[in-house]
Design a protein that fits this description.
- The protein has 2 domains: 1-33, no CATH class; 39-210, no CATH class.
- 59% of the residues lie in helices and 4% in strands.
- It contains 10 helices and 2 strands; from the N terminus they run βαβααααααααα.
- The protein has helices spanning 8-15, 39-62, 77-94, 98-124, 132-138, 144-150, 154-162, 165-172, 188-199, 205-210, and strands spanning 3-7, 28-31.
């Protein structure tokens, strides 16, 4: 368990600056016991823990179970959520629940893109750079184009779409989707068209995203 060894005042003297993390509440900083890992592994482990903690902060906008990369294990985290949402959409299409199918299909894309963002966080540590707090705040969005930009994948998507008309058309199909889709009624044709654009095994949006998480 963490101990309360240094006061905030001491932390300010040591760093030259500093603020309580919880105003009006915690007036201390945590000090943790030494790592049990061998010295050669401590740096990597510490960095991994630091990134994981920050990813969980971002994960407040991503949903519970968000992992730092989303690439390690498709049985959990955002990749699994993307697979579940597209499977849910397929089941809803079979049940002729067109509006619900349309809505959930779009969330498969959102989960996939947020997995790509976490992969970028792990690779670059962007949340620790200047403007990192703004980056975290911008992650609280459902818009596929905004998420694509946060994952730094817009240029790659545009390049691939320019060379693949089918991929381009499938991405363009997403224009009609937003989180507000749940308030609208969608036809069988609209729901089926969006589902196919996302789930096409060769040129689908989700297949493209899988190559980047």
């Amino acid at each position: 368990m963490p101990t309360m060894r240094r006061t905030i005042a001491e932390a300010r003297n040591r760093k030259g600056r500093g603020r309580p993390l919880l105003r009006g509440h915690a007036r201390f900083v945590h000090s943790y016991p030494p790592s049990p890992l061998p010295p050669a592994q401590r740096g990597r482990h510490t960095e991994s823990c630091r990134l994981s903690a920050c990813a969980r902060i971002i994960g407040c906008g991503f949903g519970r179970g968000a992992t730092i990369t989303g690439r390690e294990d498709e049985q959990g985290g955002l990749p699994a959520a993307a697979a579940e949402r597209i499977a849910d959409a397929q089941a809803l299409l079979a049940a002729q629940r067109w509006s619900a199918a349309f809505y959930l299909a779009g969330y498969a894309v959102e989960c996939g893109l947020k997995s790509c963002i976490l992969a970028r966080v792990e690779t670059t540590g962007v949340i620790f750079e200047e403007g990192g707090r703004k980056f975290v705040q911008e992650c609280w969005t459902h818009d596929p184009e905004d998420l694509l930009g946060l994952a730094k994948l817009k240029a790659a998507r545009d390049s691939d779409a320019a060379n693949n008309p089918l991929l381009k058309a499938n991405w363009q199909a997403l224009v009609s989707w937003s989180e507000a889709a749940r308030y609208k009624q969608w036809t069988q044709a609209e729901a089926t068209s969006l589902f196919n654009a996302i789930n096409d095994p060769m040129n689908g949006v989700l297949q493209w995203i899988r190559q980047h998480w």
